[in-house]
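Comment thread on ticket #2218

A.B. wrote:
> Attaching the input chain for the structure job we discussed in standup.
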Amino acid sequence: MNRVADPIDSHVAQRLRLRRELAGFTQDKLGQAVGVSFQMIQKYENGNSRVGASRLLKIAKVLGVPVAWFFEGFASVGEAAPSYGMAQPLAELDDSVFQKRETLDLLKAYYGLPESLRKHVLNMVQGMKAEEVREAVKPPASQISS
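C.D. wrote:
> Ran it. Output below, let me know if you need it in another format.
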């Protein structure tokens, strides 16, 4: 019987892989640090095995993030979402974006900056996105009457 992965488990699995790669850990190195084989880390990241609470705590400590980091951005479909108290991800953000090398490279570079600079970079990118939206909704010059 094939088990369908719970959306929360899938989200945690994706976040685990992302954080491991951002931290520069191989599956083997992380497995050794938390007391499991690299195959077990593979199973966690592929969603074939659930990460237990105690193991997730160990992984979080090794990777230098709070346990809550693995749940950030998760929102379930329907009524369950508000009960988790998690942020809703942007509708246009496809999960496949986290599988791209470009995304990982960008995140590594971003988190390599001092926190004060990261805030400026984030504000700059958000401003660029807001400007793009304003330009998209601006009527063509031919429709503007004087």
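A.B. wrote:
> Thanks. Noting for the ticket: Residues 77-91 have pLDDT under 50 and may be disordered.
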